[in-house]
Amino acid sequence: MSLPTHLHYTEEHEWLEERDGTVRVGVTHYASEALGDIVYVQLPEVGEQITAGESCGELESTKSVSDLFAPATGEVVAVNESVVDDPSLVNADPFGDGWLLELRVSENGKLLTAEQYAELTSG
Amino acid sequence: MTDMSNDRIPLAALEHGTPFADRHVGPMPAELARMLDVVGVGSLEELGQHAVPDGIRERDLQMTLPEPATEAEALDELHDLAQRCRPHAEMIGLGYYPTITPPVIRRNVIENPAWYTAYTPYQPEISQGRLEALLNFQTMVADLTGVPVSNSSMLDESTAASEGMTLVRRAGRAKSPRFVVDTDTLPQTISVLRTRAEPLGIEVVMADLSEGVDGLPEGEFFGALLAYPGASGSLRDHEAVIAEIHRRGAMAVVAADLLALTLLRAPGEIGADVVVGTTQRFGVPMGFGGPHAGYMAVRQGLERQLPGRLVGVSVDADGDQAYRLALQTREQHIRREKATSNICTAQVLLAVVASMYAVYHGPEGLRAIAARTHRMAAVLAAQFRHAGIEVVHEDFFDTVVTRVPGRADEVIAAAKRAGINLRRVDADHVGISCDETTSRDRLALVWQAFGLDTADLADVDDLDARTPDALPKALRRTSEYLTHPVFHQHRSETSLLRYLRRLSDSDVALDRSMIPLGSCTMKLNATAEMEPITWPAFAELHPFAPAEDAEGLLQVVSDLEGWLAEITGYDAVSLQPNAGSQGEFAGLLAIRAYHHDRGESEREVCLIPASAHGTNAASAVMAGLRVVVVRCDDSGNIEMDHLRELVEKHRDDLAAIMITYPSTHGVYEDTVQDVCGLVHDAGGQVYVDGANLNALIGLARMGKFGSDVSHLNLHKTFCIPHGGGGPGVGPIGVRGHLSPFLPNHPLQPQAGPETGVGPISAAPWGSASILPISWAYVRMMGSDGLRRATLTAVAAANYVARRLDEYFPVLYTGSGGFVAHECILDLRSITKDSGVSVEDVAKRLCDYGLHAPTMSFPVAGTLMVEPTESENLAELDRFCDAMIAIRAEIDKVAAGQWPADDNPLVHAPHTAASLVGEWDHAYGRQEAAYPMGTSMAKVWPPVRRIDGARGDRNLVCSCPPLSAYEE
Ligand SMILES: Cc1ncc(COP(=O)(O)O)c(C=O)c1O
């Protein structure tokens, strides 16, 4: 699967999309495959301050739990209620309807380009 | 002299007959010789020398154990011990009541290997029977408690209450460390709560709530535990108290008696967030304390916070309804130190019994039993009042407390002479609890014990007619329960018998095939070991009866403590922990108490290797310790440099290391003594998880090679059956310096040291009634038999490893290329090449009539095989041949002969129904169902592969309504 090139990526397998003044965050296709069938998504609350690199939520499959690491520092301005109701969206459309949250970023974390991320996951 | 040939068998041997060890150990001498040949050693002794590191191996270890008895002799001895037990009519109450186990349930569940030899339903496709029984249990608990989500059992009421406490702390938003406890809570529960609260920094605040809301303490608290009814029997309406608890931002846990709930308003209807208790009086004998199934149920919204196993409904690959374990990510095997609890083995067999009791009696039957119980108590109280003896409480369900100033001891002694045990509340008060077995005649004996003679007494039947119920109006139950058809269809014994058979026929237990689950030790549970546990002399003892009533069983306890100490090299043993997880908790508490006692309370770090079982990390957190993970190297051993670094770093705050030996990788690590030395030098203590003791007995002893404390799993190494996920017994052994810190019990002083850490189970000797199983095993095996079992188990694992290595590489071996008692088969590169996963292989084994090994523990993408000493060569070969045949199937997929999405592996398992009708697969029907030819032993899985994700996304954890069964 080719990686959308207009996105930024993190080593924790998240993607970031710049929108007007905010950033939308989700997990990559690679991550959603590795997790397996996602059955539960726990997201921070709107208005919460999150810190780059720290856990701000969880993704559960039937057999594993993975922390969702904040890809940047900032304030949560929106969360995707649809994935909370239907976690399978993360598997079905990780770069689209399966997005997780939107942030107003105050400080960026370490970001990768699509090319760098592709290299990270090729090994 | 002439006819005395060389092969004369002495009379002593003839008299002994076939040694039990020959029955317990599967391979016969000739078979064993073939196995050793494949392994490449000449004898079991030689295998021991090669496999077990020199440093720890005790040469010619002779354990001081009695000479082995035959089955008949052991049973005779147990009969004698049983004669030294004198169960009375036990009217002590406090959470334990006489009950009648319907014989059809006793014989066809408790005494039936199809139920008691199953393992936890990790392979749901071949566990549908017990999953259905557990779903019935969950439905029963949810209906009666009035909160919707029940788990499938807890270890006992007191630990369930403690888990309730930590659940509401975790789930709530209150910041306060205070937890309020109703003073009318069972005394053992109060003590267990204190033991659990202390290391977590929770402050237990006792509150007398007899006057309602005003009894709640000032200031913040995060939760409260309310008793319904109370330990004193008193019944109070908690509705206003719960509303106030909620108003103050806290949550309410209610400890409720399930039988009482058939008549009383459900806790869920008065606002309870969590409801806990026991199902003992639903047909499970008291057994001097256990085992019984505790329960826990929660309101909507808290289900992800539940500890323990939860059965959920999903569908299989054909769209048919199927059951499985749900929301497993809550549990210790996945979430480790962040898990909701350390509980692993629970009380499945006993939960099945309790659920079947409800199925058999149905709601009307249960209500009638509750009415009998209540009416006996009501008449009992009325008579006291009639005769001028004060009854303390107006409202009660089954328990009456009388005030007899200065006379309690005299009354209790008189009752005992009449064969009845009453409860001594204090010098002035006596408690009497009624139950399913109470009769009018027995009431007459109780009155006599109070010194009342016929002239003082009113006619019982008149009294009955005149006496109203003692249940307050506001608390009468109006809601329905157990409306599901399963609680209405099996009133006749024939019907229940067939229902039980139908369910157990869906499951694979040891009575059908080997269960080679690694880390589980699924060995023989011999019938001679099992028989005594249902003898009334053991089964009908109340755990708080005077110790003299249980003399014979206490002899079993002390023999077993002594033997286990001898076997493990420890100085003292406590049998109180009722599962391995509880042993871990008890052992770590002992370590913590030891450091505190020495003024080193800053020691709070617990090192745990990455390969450890999930319970280890979860237990450490419960014991107030901080988990630091030690890495393992490429050969699966503890990475010594990393350990050195961590020990150095934590020189001042190191409490302990928790290792498993042989390791969870199934290897005898030869660095174990260095590990112990390093940790001791830094002031830490060594905990060796003894779950793998089956690879050590008679060869090495943890208490001698550097460990300070271990738990053993009697439900692995010492033949207590797994019961489909419990019962268990997880005793701990300690070296002398830790023995002052073993568990004790407030109601039985001789159950532990006065300086102990408090009780960690509800009952003084935990699951006492199943201890005769392990007693009989040791008694019949003797020192040589036990050692032979160990070496045979190691031989069997090495045989399987040698036979399968070329097909599925064995991941880890010890220095000589040997494994211990289990081996890990690495499928990761096979999966990468073929797309066939460990799960596919596990499910395919069902088609071959076999149970899968442990999947993905301790290494993801692998299978861990533990054959045990009890499987003979034919069965070991059947397993190996199946695995080899499966490897050939995988190769066909890898080679493209079968499409990746249409082959017998991805579609496994195959039900009989899936073979009829149209068939358009790339493989044939016979390949699907009879891969080894039609003469193979066949077990038909009742369902196809179950969709796990769907069940977790749409959680249903009680019996689905009838409409769900309609097409
Ligand atoms: C290595 C190990 N430690 C601890 C345990 C926990 O024992 P229990 O299930 O009795 O709580 C197990 C059980 O499978 C185990 O394999």
From TrEMBL, chain A:
<protein>
    <recommendedName>
        <fullName>Glycine cleavage system H protein</fullName>
    </recommendedName>
</protein>
<comment type="function">
    <text>The glycine cleavage system catalyzes the degradation of glycine. The H protein shuttles the methylamine group of glycine from the P protein to the T protein.</text>
</comment>
<dbReference type="InterPro" id="IPR000089">
    <property type="entry name" value="Biotin_lipoyl"/>
</dbReference>
<dbReference type="InterPro" id="IPR017453">
    <property type="entry name" value="GCV_H_sub"/>
</dbReference>
<feature type="modified residue" description="N6-lipoyllysine">
    <location>
        <position position="63"/>
    </location>
</feature>
<dbReference type="GO" id="GO:0009249">
    <property type="term" value="P:protein lipoylation"/>
</dbReference>
<feature type="domain" description="Lipoyl-binding">
    <location>
        <begin position="22"/>
        <end position="104"/>
    </location>
</feature>
<comment type="similarity">
    <text>Belongs to the GcvH family.</text>
</comment>
<dbReference type="InterPro" id="IPR003016">
    <property type="entry name" value="2-oxoA_DH_lipoyl-BS"/>
</dbReference>
<dbReference type="InterPro" id="IPR033753">
    <property type="entry name" value="GCV_H/Fam206"/>
</dbReference>
<dbReference type="InterPro" id="IPR002930">
    <property type="entry name" value="GCV_H"/>
</dbReference>
<dbReference type="InterPro" id="IPR011053">
    <property type="entry name" value="Single_hybrid_motif"/>
</dbReference>
<dbReference type="Pfam" id="PF01597">
    <property type="entry name" value="GCV_H"/>
</dbReference>
<dbReference type="GO" id="GO:0019464">
    <property type="term" value="P:glycine decarboxylation via glycine cleavage system"/>
</dbReference>
<keyword id="KW-0450">Lipoyl</keyword>
<comment type="subunit">
    <text>The glycine cleavage system is composed of four proteins: P, T, L and H.</text>
</comment>
<dbReference type="GO" id="GO:0005829">
    <property type="term" value="C:cytosol"/>
</dbReference>
<dbReference type="GO" id="GO:0005960">
    <property type="term" value="C:glycine cleavage complex"/>
</dbReference>
Automatic annotation (TrEMBL), chain B:
<dbReference type="InterPro" id="IPR020581">
    <property type="entry name" value="GDC_P"/>
</dbReference>
<dbReference type="InterPro" id="IPR049316">
    <property type="entry name" value="GDC-P_C"/>
</dbReference>
<dbReference type="GO" id="GO:0004375">
    <property type="term" value="F:glycine dehydrogenase (decarboxylating) activity"/>
</dbReference>
<comment type="function">
    <text>The glycine cleavage system catalyzes the degradation of glycine. The P protein binds the alpha-amino group of glycine through its pyridoxal phosphate cofactor; CO(2) is released and the remaining methylamine moiety is then transferred to the lipoamide cofactor of the H protein.</text>
</comment>
<dbReference type="GO" id="GO:0019464">
    <property type="term" value="P:glycine decarboxylation via glycine cleavage system"/>
</dbReference>
<dbReference type="InterPro" id="IPR015421">
    <property type="entry name" value="PyrdxlP-dep_Trfase_major"/>
</dbReference>
<keyword id="KW-0560">Oxidoreductase</keyword>
<dbReference type="InterPro" id="IPR003437">
    <property type="entry name" value="GcvP"/>
</dbReference>
<dbReference type="InterPro" id="IPR015422">
    <property type="entry name" value="PyrdxlP-dep_Trfase_small"/>
</dbReference>
<protein>
    <recommendedName>
        <fullName>Glycine dehydrogenase (decarboxylating)</fullName>
        <ecNumber>1.4.4.2</ecNumber>
    </recommendedName>
</protein>
<dbReference type="GO" id="GO:0005960">
    <property type="term" value="C:glycine cleavage complex"/>
</dbReference>
<dbReference type="GO" id="GO:0005829">
    <property type="term" value="C:cytosol"/>
</dbReference>
<dbReference type="InterPro" id="IPR049315">
    <property type="entry name" value="GDC-P_N"/>
</dbReference>
<feature type="domain" description="Glycine cleavage system P-protein N-terminal">
    <location>
        <begin position="460"/>
        <end position="739"/>
    </location>
</feature>
<dbReference type="GO" id="GO:0016594">
    <property type="term" value="F:glycine binding"/>
</dbReference>
<feature type="modified residue" description="N6-(pyridoxal phosphate)lysine">
    <location>
        <position position="716"/>
    </location>
</feature>
<dbReference type="Pfam" id="PF21478">
    <property type="entry name" value="GcvP2_C"/>
</dbReference>
<feature type="domain" description="Glycine cleavage system P-protein N-terminal">
    <location>
        <begin position="22"/>
        <end position="450"/>
    </location>
</feature>
<dbReference type="InterPro" id="IPR015424">
    <property type="entry name" value="PyrdxlP-dep_Trfase"/>
</dbReference>
<comment type="similarity">
    <text>Belongs to the GcvP family.</text>
</comment>
<feature type="domain" description="Glycine dehydrogenase C-terminal">
    <location>
        <begin position="789"/>
        <end position="910"/>
    </location>
</feature>
<keyword id="KW-0663">Pyridoxal phosphate</keyword>
